[in-house]
Amino acid sequence: MTDVVMLSSLESAFPIRYAGPHALKTLLLEEGISTRVLDFVQVMSWSQVSEILDRWVSEDTLILGLSTTFWIHRGKTSATFKRHSIEEEFRSILVRIKERFPRIRICVGGANSHFVARTTDIVDACFVGYADDSFIEYCHNVKAGRAQFAAETVGRARVFRSPPVARRNKNGSSILWTDHDHVSREEVLPLETARGCIFKCKFCSYPNTGKTKLDYLRSNEEIRDELVRNYETNGTTVYNFLDDTYNDSLQKVSGFANMVAKLPFKIHYTGYLRADLIYRWPETAEMLLESGLVSTFFGIETLHPRASLIVGKGWSGKHAREYIPELTHKIWRDRVNVQMGLIIGLPGEEPASIWDTYKWVEENRLNGIFYSLKLSGDDSVWRSEFDVNAEKYGIQRTTTGWKGEFFDSAEADRLSHEINEKHRPRRRVDNWIHTSMLAMGVPHSDIMKYSSFEVIRAAKPMADLLVEEYVAKCLQ
Ligand code: B12
Ligand code: SF4
Asked: Which DSSP category does 403 fall into?
């Protein structure tokens, strides 16, 4: 018997687990509500999903939850209006379940829950924001047959909004991986080390930006317990760190490195880092490496002096050009896969400057990925300064996107695609795919040597096998 079943997925050629539903599962289990999460839904066929749900859902099941954060309409990712929607085949599975078990509530949560609830008629409750309190309380109420109040609706769903900081898990979740999760030996797992970010870059719509330093951090003791537990149960040593700015204080980086040095096993991890903070505290470069950093993502955004100042990352326009190649090749001696995000369409930056940045990436043998500037819609949960005050920065919203001084959204999309395609033969794998590769046994040296394209092609059969084994275990 299972009270709550959640479906989760992160669209990727490689099976990567997303933390959100597992954070909720852990709380629900602690509070006596039996819960299971089905991962990798987007790399399964709908008939496999349907077959598994037939085994897992019964008349005892109260809630079927869908995580929408990384729920991208399969195979049709380019059509924005179709992203994160529930496609017809999946909808008919949900309709069939509802017909069989009429008291089941279908709930959506995660970054695109509002959008999904608005575009389908199958959702009963929609959770907006961190759901560590709202969803757990909802589940308790449903289980106890208590009525619940929601002032707002979207489509036919009742909406439960949360404040930016939840009471439960306010510093991040400790995830318990159970036998039902079928974690394979040495599989890469997500690990939350903190919530929120001390910065507030103008284009950024992450939740809880501008937090106070050292707020909302998990203690090293708690993280150590999770690392040891995962190692003892599944042999896990490779992680995706979930922390918007993992190196936001010297104390945090050194404290973590000290804790990890005392573990009886070595870990490897990827995470979001700020390059300017390594520049500011140079001793952290070695600490990060020693504590197991294998790949990272730096949001450099632009090398343009004025654009970088406008977005709140003035360091990038001043020092990144010299420091990033130095850090990558001299200080880290190519032992870390440094991926950089660069944005096309920032106020003040003209096309020639973008091409100059691309040249710099190629000439310095760097791993860059170009994105077009994205503005969120009015119903987004988290909104950046650019989302709220676009016009103040010379950006006009249009029916199809936005228009700035040098680019509009279509041209920024086109150029990012063109440059990424040009760079593709030399680009290394994305930072989070790097950890997946390591966990599947691909040596770090090979990942650093070959292009993303080659590494992915070689490792794909292993990834398919992992999903096949996972599906077989879910059906047992
Ligand atoms: C880590 C991360 C990633 C990692 C994930 C690695 C991993 N193994 O999990 C990687 C690098 C893969 C990634 C990639 C991308 N990401 Co990302 N990512 C994040 C980040 C920083 C943290 C997410 C996380 O796991 N948090 C920890 C968990 C515990 O919290 P949570 O996700 O918020 O989950 C809570 C709620 O959402 C809710 N919830 C979640 N699921 C469910 C289900 C139910 C039933 C319910 C009730 C509630 C619920 O409850 C959870 C607990 O409170 C967020 C930003 C942020 N700080 O939140 C962006 C974020 C999720 N990413 C985002 C984006 C845009 C992307 C990319 C598209 C970027 C790109 N251009 O390539 C890609 C897409 C990848 C893909 N193929 O699908 C956006 C999504 C915005 C949107 N509206 O779609 C976010 C919100 C950042 C932002 N504001 O721009 N990302
Ligand atoms: S872009 Fe990065 S550093 Fe800036 S506010 Fe967002 S998460 Fe923080």
From this structure: E
How far is ligand 1, taken at its centre, from the CA of residue 102, in Å? Answer: 31
Q: Helical H runs in 66-149? A: 88-100, 113-118, 134-144
Q: Which residues pair with 249 in a beta bridge?
A: none
The stretch 14-38 carries a mean pLDDT of 96
Ligand 2 binding pocket mutation candidate from 195, 197, 208 (most atoms within 8 A of CB): 197
Which tokens in the block code for residue 316? Answer: 């990038």
Nearest ligand, measured from the Cα of 269: 1
| pLDDT, mean of residues 178-183 | 97
Give per-residue pLDDT as tens, 199-233: 999 999 998 999 988 889 999 999 999 999 999 99
CA dist 3 and 315 (Å) reads: 50
The verdict on pTM exceeding 0.90 is yes
- Ligand 1 atom with least separation from CA of 70: 78
| Ligand 1 pocket, Cβ-based, cut-off 6 angstroms | 6, 10-12, 16, 18-21, 23-24, 65-67, 69-70, 72, 107, 109-112, 127, 130-132, 135, 173, 190, 192, 205-207, 240, 242, 244, 371, 382, 432
Average pLDDT in the chain = 94
- Tens digit of each residue's pLDDT (9 = 90 or more) over 146-161: 988 888 999 899 999 9
Taking a C-beta distance cutoff of 8 angstroms, is the pair 270, 434 a contact?
Answer: yes
Nearest residue by C-alpha to atom 4 in ligand 2: 201
